[in-house]
Amino acid sequence: MRAYLTPSGQKAADDYAISKIGVSGSILMENAASGSAHCIAMWLDASAIRSERPSILILCGSGNNGGDGFAIARHLYCMNRFEVTIYHVGNIDGMSPETKANLESAHALNIPISFIDQDALLTLSFDVDCIVDALLGTGANADVYGMPYEILKRMHEINVYEKSLCITIDIPSGIDAENGTAHHYAFKAHGTCTMFSEKVGMQLYPAKQHCGEVEIIMLGVPEYIAQNNASVFSLEDQDIHDIIGIRHAQSHKYTYGRVLIIAGSRDMSGAPALCAMSAFRTGVGLVEIMTPVIHPSLPPEALLSLIPMDDDGGMNVDSLMTHVKDSLSKTNAIVCGPGLGIRAGQHIYQELLKLNLSIPVILDADAIPNSIVNVPSNWVITPHAGECARMTGLKRSAIEEFPLRHVTHISKEMQCIVHLKSVPACTSDGTKTYLTKTGNPGMATAGSGDILSGMIGALLARGINPLEAAALSAMLHGEAGDFAQSVFGEESMSASDIIASIPHVLDRSLMDSWEDEA
């Protein structure tokens, strides 16, 4: 599991390292500088720059990010491979002792340092091989002003990002480390050296587009410090089997759970088939489908209850609920919503709510509530931005701009798990949030959401807690989409291709063997 820090989380991590472990601020800064300098040298060596002694310009503010920059200048200078110059912005009087000490060390080594004010601005030269941004750091936001604004604007106007290798320290100046907003003139890094862990804002758009390749610089303190001070995470490949576990020899279909899928209507009869097949591919033992129409692609392995239709082509809810009540004693999780139609979807979710169920329920598509309501804490709601706007009354554009902020707030209000199908997708219980780092635009195809619902239902039926079930399903869903992209391409990918790819991401040996054959 990977942790992402907010500015307050970064400060708490720094404070813990200093006060509890005894690693001083000066040592943290020195470790940050040493690791960053070696990373910068590595990136320069791998670049197309062929100068015998590449020229490096380091832009330093007067905060601790600037202190990192002064120390990086010293490390690069002492490698005796580079021509190092510093542009300094800000007030020396307000510097921390660590920052001031590193500025004085750079002076003692006679590294060229120019203090930049308004008069010097138009004479600045950015004609160098590499520019390092250490102006602002995580404590700033996207509201850039003063001399940093003038410098970033000047760099934008003369298009330095096309001419030089541009590296930033911790986070690009002009982006918000918490919500991912970016100033028009924000630094556009080809690479970012970030401390402890990546920052939350770096995972969100548009800030993500300013970060380039990211290298995490460890500061000589345990990784758990970042984990303990974060509330935003993403799952990684090693988490798959840690969460799902292994299948045992002495097991049977009921060991792996039974999921009930309530889906489909006359006009959307394929939704339950996609949902059911993805649930089987995600390892559930048994699938029961309640639907009003038999689609030819319904998996033969599934149990089927054919529900009478009302005049609008949706399910007759009274008849459905009789079947649901008869099935509850054998059911471990319910998926409700794909292809139901809005009338049936709203009616069915309200009827399920009245049953005071102990098992988890997923509300997707047409079953997503039309307003913020309290539902049981083990329920999962999976809206895209439009459905989220319908549910909250917010503008779709606002949700798309700040997905992490809104999913956290909504899940707190509803007191359940909310998985927002944004970019990146966000899964939250109001306290802990997972970001989905997988997936691609080819997955914007009919039925893709039905597949995710089936995958979540499968993991819930297998007994995985709802937050992890939703987050892991989203990760696997994205990875299956990425595998399908590698085979079919983004333009030609269909939902069925994503289902066919699920085995390859659950069992990496299948992926390896497929690549060997290819």
Please provide a written account of the structure.
With 518 residues, the protein is an alpha/beta fold. It has 17 helices and 18 strands. The protein has an 11-stranded mixed beta sheet with strand order 1-9-18-17-16-15-14-13-10-11-12, sandwiched between helices. The chain has a 7-stranded parallel beta sheet with strand order 4-3-2-5-6-7-8, with helices on one face. The longest helix is centred in the last third of the chain and has 23 residues, at 466-488. The protein is elongated. The model has no long low-confidence stretch (mean pLDDT 95).
Write the layout of secondary structure elements.
Elements: E1 2-4, H1 7-19, H2 25-46, E2 55-60, H3 64-78, E3 83-88, H4 97-108, E4 113-115, E5 130-134, H5 146-157, E6 165-169, E7 191-195, E8 213-217, H6 224-228, E9 232-234, H7 237-244, E10 258-262, H8 271-281, E11 286-291, E12 303-306, H9 317-327, E13 333-336, H10 342-354, E14 361-364, E15 380-382, H11 385-392, H12 396-401, H13 403-414, E16 417-420, E17 426-428, E18 433-435, H14 448-461, H15 466-488, H16 495-506, H17 508-517
Parallel strand pairs: 2-3, 2-5, 3-4, 5-6, 6-7, 7-8, 9-18, 10-11, 10-13, 11-12, 13-14, 14-15, 15-16
Antiparallel strand pairs: 1-9, 16-17, 17-18
Short overview:
With about 525 residues, the chain is an alpha/beta fold.
Provide the descriptors you would attach to this structure in a database record.
single chain; 518 residues; alpha/beta; elongated
